Amino acid sequence: MDIRDGTNFRKGGWGIDPSVPLDVYETYIEGNSKKVSFITDRDSITFDVMPGKSYPFVFVLNGKDSAFTEIRGFKLVPRARFSKSYQQTYRGKTIVEIPQMYELLNVIFALTDKGRDNNGLIPRHTAYYDQVMEWFMPYRDQPAVKKINTELAADGVYHALKMDAYAFELNADGTIAQSPVYDRIGRSNSNSLRAYIPDLQQFARSSRFQEFYNAHQPFYDQLTKAYRDSIGVPEMQRWLGRNFPSTRYDAFKIILSPLVGNNQSASFFDYDGFREAQAHVNFPFHTPENTAGWSPEAIYVKDGNIVFTELNHAFIGPEGEQPAYRDRIQKAFSDLAIWNDPSKPARGYNTPQASFDEYMNWALVNLRYLDYAPPTEQAKLIANIEDMMVHNRGFRRFKEFDQFLIKTYKARKKGQTVADLYPAIIGWFEGNK
């Protein structure tokens, strides 16, 4: 059946299943109430739903099968609140950190079935990983690990859980408290980790997590210092600000863990007159595979790719969502099979905007190579990105687009920015769909 939730209409958004004891539909409300309707081809029912209230009813199928259903209203709260003191403290700053709660959840990820597989989720080649496993493996049967293990079986849950951990703080007495700033980091209407906080607190105490964390503080400081001083973050911010002049941020945060592998994410906030961009990333540990054959100058630029691609999203997203571009992107990417191989990771970028943004995201990496990498190594660096995007990740037309953008960027007029090239960029997708 269809659902009308306030002004949002979801065609075929609900199924009726009498075998489920109670099917619950949750809705989030900004004001005092909103109307929610369930609509079939024969009938409809509408409730004026208020926060904190439940509305039970029954669907009857074929005159005999009852499907018990309930609508629950929840107050929609802002994802963040930036007080005056917070703004004064962080305005103009770039913060790099490995927070305790963040690391606690990543330790649990490492103990799950998926975390212990050789699938790139957790980097397993470091001495730190060995130390984590030695300390925490005796606690792998705790409820927190078992429940998160079950959650990770669903695609797309990892990023939400990981980012939402940043909305909690682990106090000195071992209690976990909601952040005074953030309710949630992801874009959902509720914090995906909140239900697991009691189990996480039990795990932290019984495993002596804070003792482990404090003992490794010098190692964490080493990684955060490298991000601040040795990966070129200020240069990236200047490059993005220069090329997307209509988008600005008051603060940046780079949140990382040495236990994060090939899964990065980003979030940005605009509340109380303050804009903040967050990059949730790994650490670019050097290995023979990723350093052999490159000059120190090329390695320096390469090391910044992951954080650059996450900072990118805070600029690409707002630019592509402008009214002048949004509908054109939707139409150009209406058939995602043209652009993304459904058998490869590109399948996860399953909306026109997400697919367009990821094409732009890694194409900007190659534009940055043009501006900062050693000229003699640029062609090889660019080819490596194109090969990774097409053959490993499954963005079928990336090389063609990338070559077009490189040519366009090189030929741009004096003073033109990447944002100025968006009409031509979107025109290329329209002409090649």
Integer-rounded radius of gyration? 24 Å
N-to-C CA distance: 33 Å
Low-confidence stretches: none
Biggest sheet, in brief? Answer: 4 strands, antiparallel
Number of helices: 18
Taking all residues together, what is the mean pLDDT? 94
Q: How many strands?
A: 13
Note the main attributes of this structure.
single chain, 433 residues, alpha/beta, four-stranded antiparallel sheet, four-stranded mixed sheet, 13 strands
What would your notes on this structure say?
- It contains 18 helices and 13 strands.
- By secondary structure, the chain is an alpha/beta fold.
- The chain has three domains: 74 residues, no CATH class; 209 residues, no CATH class; 116 residues, no CATH class.
- The strands form four sheets. Strands 2-1-4-5 form a four-stranded antiparallel β-sheet, with no helix packed on it.
- Strand 9 and strand 10 form a beta hairpin.
- Helix 15 packs across helix 17.
- It starts with a strand and ends with a helix.
Summarize the structure.
By secondary structure, the protein is of the alpha/beta class.
Topology diagram in text:
Elements: E1 2-5, E2 8-10, E3 23-29, E4 34-39, E5 44-49, E6 54-61, E7 65-75, H1 84-90, E8 94-97, H2 100-111, H3 113-116, H4 127-136, H5 143-151, H6 157-164, E9 168-170, E10 176-178, H7 197-206, H8 209-215, H9 217-229, H10 233-243, E11 251-256, E12 265-271, E13 274-281, H11 288-291, H12 296-303, H13 305-320, H14 323-332, H15 352-372, H16 375-392, H17 398-410, H18 422-431
Parallel strand pairs: 3-7, 8-11, 11-13
Antiparallel strand pairs: 1-2, 1-4, 4-5, 6-7, 9-10, 12-13
Helix pairs in contact: 10-13, 13-15, 14-18, 15-16, 15-17
